Every structure is written in C-alpha cells, then in structure tokens.
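1st attempt posting a full record on here, be nice pls
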Amino acid sequence: MSKRTALKLRIQQFFAQLTQGCGRQHCPNENCASNSTIKQLSCDEAAVQAIHLASSKAELCSENHRGFSDSIKQLPDNLGSDSLPSSSNTQQVKPDSENPNDDIDMLNPDYSALWKYCTTKQKIHENGYIPELKQAISNIFSNSKLLNRYEKIFALKTDLREEIAQGTETDKQWDSSAKMSVGSSDDQSKEDTVVEKETASEKSVSKKPDPQTVPYLPTVDVVFFRTLFARISEDAVLETVLHESLVKLVNLAEKAICTNPNEYKSDPNYLNMIVILLECPLLQSPESLEEMFPKFLKIVAKLPLAANVALAHHWSRYDGAQLKNVIETIQQLIAYQVAMHYLDQTDLVAHEDQRIIDASKCLNILFFASILGGEVDRTVDEKGAAEAQSMRNAPREEEADAQLGTELKLTKLDSVAPLVPRVEFVNEALNDVIKIDKDYANYRVSQQGSNKFSFLHYQFLLTTLNKTTYLFYDNRVRIERRRTLMSSLFAGSAINPFLKIQVRRTHIINDTLVQLEMAAEDLKNLRKQLYVEFDGEEGADEGGVSKEFFALMVEEIFNPANGTFILVEESQLFWFNPQSFEGLMQYKLIGIILGLAIYNNCILEIKFPSFVYKKLLGRKARFRDIKDLHPVIYQSLCSLLEYTGDVEDDLMLTFQVEHQDVFGCTHHHDLKEGGVNIPVTKLNRQEYVDMYSDWLLNTSIEEQFNAFLGGFELVLSQSPLKYLFEASELELLLCGSEHYDFNALEESAEYDGGFTKDSQTVKDFWSVLHELSDEEKKTLLQFSTGSDRAPVGGLAKLKMILAKNGPDSDRLPTAHTCFNVILLPDYKNKKKLRELLLKAIKYSKGFGML
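the predicted structure (as tokens):
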C-alpha cells in the first residue's frame, strides 16, 4: 500500500472514530466519540480534526472494539487523498517561476494551515504559527497551479459557515447574503428573482440554464476565501506576504496567458484563480490600480469565449451588491486611467488604451452575468418580427460583436430586472473623453472583419447622449455614402440628396401620405435627409421647417377626432384604436414618421405608454405593463389574483371579455375557444390574467401595431438603433425629456452680433425667462428650437444663441429654429422686452424670409 493510500485510510479511521466512536463504553481517548466528556462534532469539524490527527500521528482506538469498515463509508466524498496534508518534512512547493512544470503535490500542509487559521477563534500570536501561515500564503498565492486546484478541498457547509461568520463583521455581511449560493457546478442555482404579482407565464421564461451543462465552471468556495482574506487583513505581516505573493502570481499568469490563451483547457480548474483573485481586497485596493489590477484584467480579457461563458454563469449567482462592488472597482480603474492620460491631452484616444480595452471586456462578462442572474424574459413578438422583416428589402449589416450574448442565448433586451442596475455600467468620465468620430470609424472598419476596438461593441459603457451622437454619425455616413455612390454611377447628373416633400398645412396628413407612398417605392429615399416645404411659405428648411412639420403631423395624427388613436382618460396616454376606420396604410405612415424623426434628429411630443417602445424593439407587452396604460384594470386584475374567497361563485367571470369602442358600442371577445362557457376559478385565474393581458396589449391591436412597426422598420432597418438603445432610451431619443433646467440653458448659451453675457438686454432676457410660467417657458422653447422638449442630455445641449438684431425698436424677437438662435433688438428696458417676447412666442407658427 502506498503512503498516500495508507494516510487516506488513516484519516478515514479517525473520521469514523470522531463521529461514531470506537464502540467501547467510556473510552478514555479524548479524540473518540465514545468518550462521554467530548462534545459532538459536525461532519466538517470531524473532517478537519481527522486530517490533523492523522498528520500528527495521534493515537487511534483499538479497531477490535468496532468494525471501522462500515463507518468509513460515512466519510465525506470531498475528503479524498487530494485534500490530505503531508508530514512536516514534505518538500515545499515552489513558485511557478522556479518550477512551472512540476506536478503539484497536494500532500502539503498549506491549505490545512489556512483552514485552521480561518476556523480558529484564537489569535494567531497565541498559537505561534505565523511562520507556518506566511509560508502557506506564499506557497499557495504565488503558484497558480496550486491555487487552481483548490476545488472545494475544504468545502464549507452551512453550519460551519455560521461559526466562521462569527469572526468579523465583514464575514457576517458576506455570509448573510441572500444569494450567496456559489460553489461547484453541482450547487443549485439561486431562485429566480420574481417581481411583485408576476404571473406564472412570466416566471417560466425567467429560468436559468442548468450550471451542470456549462464547461469549465469555477469550483470555488467563495465564503472560505472571503473569510480568509478578511482574517489576513487583520495582520499587517500576513497582508504584506499576501500582497507580494499576488504580485508574483499575477505577473506569471499574465505572461502565461499571453503565450497560451487556451491554457484553461489543459487545467479544468484554471478559472478558480480568476474567481479567487477577484475576491481579494488587495487586488481591488487603490494601490493596485497602477499595476497589479490592470494586469489581472488583462488576464481575464485574453480568456477565450468558453471561459467567458463559464465566468458569466459563475458570477450570475452572486448577490447584486457583491457584483456591484467588483464593477465599481473596474470603473475606478477606467476613471483613473482617464484622469491620468486623457483630461489634458487631445492627441490620445481612449479606444486605443489597452487598459481601458481590457476593463471593458471584463465589464462585458459582468454585464451579461448581471442579466443572467436577474429576471429574464426571452419571449419575442414573432408576428411583429415577421412583419418587420417583410418590410426590409436588404439584409441588416452585421452588428457589433455579441458572441458572449449569443453563447448565453441572451441579449440586453431580455433583461427585466438585472442584478445590478444598468446605470452602474455607464462610465461618465470615459464618455467625456471618447472621440466619437474616430471611435465610430473603428466600428465601421471592424464590421469589415478587422479587430479594431470600438466602444460601440460595449454600448453598456455609453451614456444615452453619446449613443445618440453615434446614431447621428451612422445616419449621416449612410447618407453621404449613398450620395457618393450615386455620383460615381451617374457622373454629371444632378443627384438629389434629400427626401423632399411639399405639403399644405390644411391637408398635411393626406399630402404626406401620398408623397411618402411614392417615396417608399425605393426605400433608399426614406434614408435621405428630409427637406420640407410648406405650400405658399418661403422658409428654407435647414432643420427648423422639418421640426415644425413633425410637430404638426403629431398634432394631427393624435387628434382624437380622427379615431386613429384612443386617449385613455385614466392615464392620459394614447393607444391604438382596434376599431379604427383608418386603413393600415395610415398606421404605416405614422411608423415612417417616427422613423424619419429619429433619422433626422427631431423630437416629437408623443404620449404613448412606455412599453410601446419595448414593442418597437421586438418584445411583447406583459401583465405588468397594463399598469401604465390602464391602472384601474391593473388593480382589478391584481385583486383577482389575490382574492381569497370563492372566485367562481363570487366574481362570476368567464374567459370572455366585454369592451366598448369609441362610439360606445359593446363588443365581446373569447380569450379561448368557447370562453363564454369557461368560468374563471382559483385554479385558472392566472391563465385568465395572462390571456387577458396579451389580448389587451398585443393581439387586439395586432394589425394596427404591426403596420406601424413595419413603417418604422422601413426607415431604420439598417440602423444600429436596436443594438444601441434600450426601450427607455428609445423613448427619450424620440420624445425628449420633460425635465427642464433653464439655469443649465443659460450657462451653456452663446452670444453673437455684439451681445455678450454682460449685455443689459441679455441680462433682461434671462431675467424674464426665469419669471415665466412653466407653460410659457415651454412655448419659448418651441419658438426658439422647434420643440418644447429637452433633448437627450438636457437643455444645456441645445447651445442656444442670443444674437443682436439691431438697435432698440418695436420689432418682435425672431428665431432661427434650425440653429436655436433668437434674434433680439437691443431693447431699452426689461418691460418692453417682456411684452414683445411674449407676443412673439404666442404667434410663432409659420416661416418667412427675413
């Protein structure tokens, strides 16, 4: 029998002796369960004690008093020979740099020493084993192979975790986490997060993949290492040893991964090192931001896709607060890098900074981990998607790299409630220094197969404002590319770069419908810059005329008298009229108008419920969305789900719903075949709520919405819109914000024609503006910019210009809405300025040549 096998058997015998005893009554051995004076040990405590007794060659009770063969079977499976410590003369494990190819001898006392350090309640100085601990820390944390092979050697179960957690307040905080179910691949996934009153069908789409099917999944007892790191931090000597070991380990691992990115394939536990190191506070300390932490992120960034998938699955089982701490540390590194290199230098570009690139790739894994670990809804509107596809005459260009999401079968649109709010992934400091024109150029090049890095590949880092700028570049590049192509094909011919329409104010809907129908015969026309002329008016459209055109179109489209949309009184929001007399072409036109508004960077005053924008991105509305549009119906359905009485006899509902159209006529609809004869009971009420919600928000307006979606896709089918924006951002992009900061507008304003910030007329203007009512301020915005909404980024992004328009006179102020310019005569006093300004904004419709 080999020494290894003999030692394993010895430990098994001690474990049986500690848990079941030797069978002798009143056994004098203080390490035997038959000794009535010793306390009963848990399995984990007995396992640790058995290892200690075997390695110290303690006395074993006579085997004649009890058959140990049966007792040995009770030994925990994870207490195998790989977890046994060696005798004190075992050869010390050398760091990777000295002997990288030797097999790691797991019969060493290092993990045993660390385990003892974590589980003891005595101070290390009392036990006198600081040298042993220093050596153990140095051996393990400077050797990736030994660290990787941890593999839950000393797996902590719940009862022992509670004992360890009594050590420090930090430990208690870690151990109290509701979602700290992290360990080997056979651990159960944590329960799905379910929002209040979520229906059964919504729960079914939120289930997580079975972790057993994920290759290379880390097998780390996170609680053990968190406890260990917390204990080490209490002693400066041990903390110094740990820091020196980590520096050595990270340097060696960085060199190894650069040489062989697929090293993880030869070591099934390679990712253990990544998980363990990321738990170490020293790695995330400010002192590590300069060297050690960036090198660690480089190691993670160089891991292949399969390893990224495994890490995403592992981190998806963390608590949101724990995941957020890691994200914040990486964000601090990015902010530090920006502050050190990009605030004062204009010749450097952030998308070429390797540290920022590595950090972005690591955040990408955490971003998908946050989605995967939260509430997920992967259902899509198949009919709407088919309708949208039928409207396209060309395939979509390949979007930014989404390999990780593809492997996880996940997109950001699937996320309902992530573990970490998405705003935590946005880095404001980075967004301030991104040179969008150059980064967008990298994005276009990368679509042709290049390895160029672009932040568009990691859009979760970007602010909505920067995403909007990227979209603007994309729109303009496509326009210019088509213009160049046409010029080369038809040399010498006059190429019209605009989608030009001429409309009468009194017939704006019909005129627009006819001309857009003609333009849509060639979809490329819809992707030209819009140029509008109002019949009988001289205004040249440099953006301002188009703004008023869109405003008038929206006003007419949403006029309740037309019956295209219904105004829901309780929410004051518009909804599709399922009994509209308007043809589907009308809804298609409205979709085109919305697409053109985005394409031409115009804000519309549209009052749709927020979930409409989710539907525009291909997702179905669900029960929870009813709350926005029909709050009374939502509360009624919630009451139905919570009702404790006899649902069938008391409520007398069936699977047939009754509704009225705009003319007051009553209609009936069966939610399922024969619904009028199917009563709603306690057992099927969940199904009733699901089907009613789907009918109310999806199927009842399916034809109208799909036509609307088809028109929208006609314009934007080749745009990166769906990749860039979430539903809430799409709403902000299209409708602007109703949050107004007129102080920011004043601070960002510019002056021309002789005016300065200190001019008396300028001071009077701002004084008058701040005294106006909220409605008058919005009217002033409409007068000067063509929209009464704040754009993405707030009023400061308007860059309003106040220009002097001659000396004092009785002329009214005028505006160039194309450029956000207000022309003011140099009025002699504030009273006159206020009187004429209010008169100008009240009668501000129409265009003329000044």
